[in-house]
């Protein structure tokens, strides 16, 4: 981390009045694999977290913060950000936990109980409750990956876009559909062919037939213009997914003055607190934008959705057992999450249970 004195020679005459000689400017590298704009959690990193930290440090301390920003994979790709922060290539980064299926397997727990809350703020309340109840989740970032969790973020409600229209689950049999990874098991009941992919690859892959559909929330489906090669967007309601993290390198944090650390942590929490409303607004913009762009937006029949949800009733237990076998508190987390969603005011459409 680069440090430079903020006081130049020309300011020495008034340094006793303007600022103490110990004042410093700290330059921090921040980035994400996804771009600023189509990915709301990155937009909030760039337009909320960064300027708010800069403002507060300047106003409330003797120091200044400067950020070198690298989004859209400029410094680290979507599956490289966790490691880049761990190694100090990035001081702070935001990323989807979905691209760390091994290292952060259990942190993907919202994916393991689909058809949850349709409202991002409600979903965020439930997920934060689980992190508070099971400290292991936050502690793993520090103990195993040398970084500190500053705040959570997410994706707005997931639906399904396809090149061809469909009405029944059977219509998807044999259709190749892309997804981030942890959500691909949602497709098993439909008989679709899951394809691991990333948002930056989606447009060309849909255009060239690498796959013919995407499990995607409307903000990104519109933002990445997936509606152009795949104009059929079906509202399934798999649920909002708070599975994105904003973390900071532990060594970087320890090297900063305590008052600067405090501000970074407080702004990180504020970044999380505003995420639900930000994602809900993005969901509306996305749906309105898709309709305005001429996409075929339709709602899946309630009985078809219920049948699909029923097919996944064993998924939470399956993933909890897998996590337990990896030495993680899988059953504890999944039980806490199922209960937290209800406590947040949402009624599950199926009877999930975890022993």
Please give a structural write-up.
It is a single chain. By secondary structure, this protein is an alpha/beta fold. The chain has a single domain, classed as 3-Layer(aba) Sandwich (D-Maltodextrin-Binding Protein, domain 2). The chain is 41% helix and 21% strand. The protein contains 13 helices and 10 strands. It has helices spanning 15-18, 40-60, 81-87, 120-133, 136-145, 199-208, 218-223, 250-255, 258-273, 275-292, 302-310, 315-325, 330-343; strands spanning 2-5, 24-31, 64-70, 92-96, 147-162, 176-179, 193-196, 213-216, 232-249, 296-299. It starts with a strand and ends in a 12-residue tail after the last helix. 47% of the residues are buried.
Looking at this structure, what is the CATH superfamily? Bacterial extracellular solute-binding protein, family 7
Major sheet: size, sense and barrel closure? 8 strands, mixed
At the first level of CATH, the class is: Alpha Beta
Specify the CATH architecture. Answer: 3-Layer(aba) Sandwich
Stated plainly, the CATH topology is called: D-Maltodextrin-Binding Protein, domain 2
Strand content: 15-25%
Number of helices: 13
Task: State the helical fraction.
Answer: 40-55%
The radius of gyration over CA amounts to: 22 Å
Strand pairing plus helix content: what structural class?
alpha/beta
Compute the number of structural domains: 1
Low-confidence stretches: 1-21
| SSE order | EHEHEHEHHEEEHEHEHHHEHHH
Mean pLDDT: 93
Let me know the number of strands.
10
* Shape summary: globular
**End-to-end gap:** 47 Å
């Amino acid at each position: 981390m680069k440090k430079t004195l903020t006081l130049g020679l020309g300011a020495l005459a008034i340094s006793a009045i303007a600022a103490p000689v110990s004042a410093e400017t700290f330059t921090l590298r921040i980035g994400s694999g996804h771009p600023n704009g189509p990915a709301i959690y990155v937009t909030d990193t760039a337009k909320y977290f960064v300027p708010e930290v800069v403002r507060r440090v300047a106003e409330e301390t003797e120091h200044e913060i400067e950020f070198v920003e690298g989004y859209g994979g400029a410094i680290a790709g979507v599956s490289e950000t966790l490691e880049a922060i761990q190694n100090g290539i990035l001081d702070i980064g935001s990323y989807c936990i979905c691209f760390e299926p091994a290292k952060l397997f259990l942190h993907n727990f919202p994916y393991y109980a689909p058809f949850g809350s349709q409202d991002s703020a409600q979903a965020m309340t439930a997920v934060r409750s689980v992190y508070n109840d099971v400290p292991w989740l936050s502690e793993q970032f520090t103990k195993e990956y040398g970084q500190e969790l500053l705040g959570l973020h997410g994706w707005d409600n997931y639906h399904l876009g396809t090149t061809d229209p469909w009405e029944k689950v059977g219509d998807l049999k044999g259709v190749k559909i892309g997804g981030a990874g942890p959500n691909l098991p949602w497709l098993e009941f439909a008989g679709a062919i899951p394809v691991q992919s990333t948002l930056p690859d989606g447009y060309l892959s849909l255009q060239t037939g690498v796959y013919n559909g995407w499990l995607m929330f409307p903000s990104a489906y519109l933002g990445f213009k997936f509606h152009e090669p795949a104009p059929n967007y079906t509202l399934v309601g798999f649920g909002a997914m708070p599975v994105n993290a904003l973390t900071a390198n532990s060594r970087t944090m320890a090297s900063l003055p305590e008052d600067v650390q405090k501000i970074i942590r407080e702004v990180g929490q504020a970044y999380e607190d505003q995420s639900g409303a930000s994602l809900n607004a993005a969901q509306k913009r996305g749906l309105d934008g898709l309709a305005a762009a001429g996409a075929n937006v339709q709602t899946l029949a309630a009985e078809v959705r219920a049948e699909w949800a029923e097919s996944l009733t064993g998924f939470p237990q399956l993933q909890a057992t897998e996590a337990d076998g990896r030495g993680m508190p899988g059953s504890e987390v999944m039980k806490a999450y199922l209960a937290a969603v209800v406590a947040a005011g949402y009624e599950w459409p199926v009877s999930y249970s975890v022993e």
